[in-house]
Design goal:
The chain has 338 residues and is α/β, with parallel strands linked by helices. The chain has two domains: 170 residues, Peroxisomal Thiolase, Chain A, domain 1 (3-Layer(aba) Sandwich); 155 residues, Thiolase/Chalcone synthase (Peroxisomal Thiolase, Chain A, domain 1, 3-Layer(aba) Sandwich). The protein has eleven helices and 13 strands. The strands form four sheets. Strands 1-7-6-4-5 form a five-stranded mixed sheet, sandwiched between helices. A four-stranded mixed sheet has the order 8-13-12-11, sandwiched between helices. It has a two-stranded antiparallel ribbon with strand order 2-3. The radius of gyration is 19 Å and the shape is globular. The protein starts with 7 loop residues before the first strand and ends in a 9-residue tail after the last strand. The relative contact order is 0.19. It binds oxa(dethia)-CoA (UT7). Oxa(dethia)-CoA binds next to helix 2, helix 6 and helix 8.
C-alpha cells in the first residue's frame, strides 16, 4: 500500500521495561539450559520480568506517559489509543480502555489489536489511516507485553526466549513528504498452530484439566516459526519499500522485531544490509513481542543512529502467523527525544 494524501509520522516515543532482570545464568538454575546455548542460538543474554502484581496495562501506561511528554501532546488531545498485545490484563475490558482511563484520555476511542509480535507494526499502520482519512489528529499506538505471565517456566524451549516491556508512539500529521511512506501487512492463518496459547478461549475454556495439562501457556514450534520468519522478514521490508517507490539501497536504519539474532542477521543478509544499519537489542530484552520494535526504535534514536531525512524500516513477524513492515522518512524536528 503506498501512502497518498496527508503525511503521517511518529512525533513522540516512550518505552518502559520493569526493573527486575533475569539472566541466562538465573535460567540455568531453573531449567536444563546454559548461557552458551542461549547466546549462541538466540543472541539473548538477559530479559526484564515484571513482579507478580504488575500487568500489561501498567507497562503500557508508563510507556505512554513518556511518549506523550516526548511528543508534547496532552492526554486529552488523543483521539484514539491502540494497544497491540498478546497478553492483555483480562479478556475485557481491553488494555486500551484501561490505559485510556489511567491517562485520563477522555476524548480518545480505544481498542486492542491482536497480531502477535507484529502487533506494533499493524498498530502504526492502522492508526496512521485514521489520521490520513481526516477522522483523527492524534493517535497513541502502544505495544505492551508481559510474556512472563504466559510462559511455561519449566519448558526450556520457550522460557529462555521472552521478556516483558512496552513501547508507545504518538502519531500525527507531519511535514509533507516525511513520515510513513510505505506499508506492507500480511497473514498466513494456516500457520496459526505453530505459535499459540491453546486454552482459555472459547474453543477450549479453562477447566481444572486444561490447567493440569498446562494448556494456558504459550506453545511454539520454534523451528517452523524460525523458517517462516527468515522468509517473511526480507519480503515484507522489500514490499513496503516498493510501495514507497524505493528499494533496499534506501535503508538507513532497519528496526527488526527482536526475536533471535540469527533471524535478524538473515533478514539483513536478504536485504544486503551491513549490520551497522540494523538495530539489535535482543541481547538485553529477549523477545518482548509487540514491544520489541518500539524498544529498538527508541534505542536507535537515543544512540543517534537515526538522523533527519533517514529512511527507517520497521519489520516484524509473529503469531497468526502475521508479518508487517513500515517505511518511515524520519523528520528530526518532530521526533526529538527529550
Ligand atoms: O516472535 C516470534 C516468536 N518466536 C520466535 O521467534 C522463535 C523462532 N525460533 C527460534 O528462534 C529457534 O527455533 C529457537 C531458538 C526456538 C530454537 O533454536 P534452534 O536452533 O532451532 O534449536 P532446536 O529447536 O532445533 O533445538 C536444538 C536442540 C534440541 O535438542 P536435541 O533434540 O537436538 O537433543 C533442543 O531440545 O537444542 C535443545 N534446546 C535447548 N538446549 C539448551 C532447546 N532449547 C534449549 C535450551 N537450552 N533453552
Amino acid at each position: 500500500m503506498s501512502e497518498q494524501g496527508v503525511s503521517v509520522g511518529i512525533i513522540g516515543i516512550g518505552t518502559y521495561v520493569p526493573d527486575r532482570i533475569l539472566t541466562n545464568h538465573d535460567l540455568e538454575n531453573m531449567v536444563d539450559t546454559s548461557d552458551n546455548w542461549i547466546v549462541e542460538r538466540t543472541g539473548i543474554k538477559k530479559r526484564h520480568i515484571v513482579e507478580p502484581e504488575v500487568a500489561t496495562s501498567d507497562l503500557a501506561v508508563y510507556a505512554a506517559q513518556k511518549a506523550l511528554v516526548n511528543a508534547h501532546v496532552s492526554a486529552d488531545e488523543l483521539d484514539l489509543i491502540i494497544v497491540a498485545t498478546a497478553t492483555p490484563d483480562m479478556f475485557f475490558p481491553s488494555v486500551a480502555c484501561l490505559v485510556q482511563d489511567r491517562l485520563q484520555a477522555v476524548n480518545a476511542a480505544a481498542f486492542d489489536l491482536a497480531a502477535g509480535c507484529t502487533g506494533f507494526v499493524y498498530g502504526v499502520a492502522t492508526g496512521s489511516q485514521f489520521i490520513k482519512s481526516g477522522l483523527y489528529k492524534k493517535v497513541l499506538v502502544i505495544g505492551a507485553e508481559t510474556l512472563s505471565k504466559i510462559v511455561d517456566w519449566t519448558d526450556r524451549n520457550t522460557c529462555v526466549l521472552f521478556g516483558d516491556g512496552a513501547g508507545a508512539v504518538v502519531l500525527s500529521e507531519v511535514r509533507s513528504g516525511y513520515g510513513i511512506l510505505g506499508i506492507d501487512l500480511g497473514a498466513d492463518g494456516s500457520g496459526g498452530d505453530h505459535l499459540k496459547v491453546p486454552a482459555g478461549g472459547s474453543r477450549i475454556p479453562a477447566t481444572e484439566q486444561t490447567v493440569a495439562g498446562r494448556l494456558h501457556y504459550l506453545s511454539m514450534n520454534g523451528n517452523e516459526v524460525f523458517k517462516f520468519a527468515i522468509k517473511v522478514m526480507g519480503e515484507a521490508a522489500v514490499k513496503a519499500l516498493d510501495n514507497a517507490g524505493m528499494d533496499y539501497h534506501s535503508i538507513d536504519c532497519l528496526i527488526p522485531h527482536q526475536a533471535n539474532i540469527r533471524i535478524i542477521q538473515s533478514a539483513a543478509k536478504r536485504l544486503k544490509l551491513p549490520m551497522d544499519k540494523v538495530m539489535v537489542n535482543v541481547d538485553k530484552y529477549g523477545n518482548t513481542s509487540a514491544a520489541s520494535i518500539p524498544l529498538a526504535l527508541e534505542e536507535a534514536l537515543e544512540k543517534g543512529r537515526i538522523q533527519h531525512n533517514d529512511i527507517v524500516v520497521l519489520v516484524g513477524f509473529g503469531a497468526g502467523l502475521t508479518w508487517g513492515s513500515c517505511v518511515i522518512k524520519w523528520c528530526k524536528e518532530e521526533n526529538t527525544i527529550v
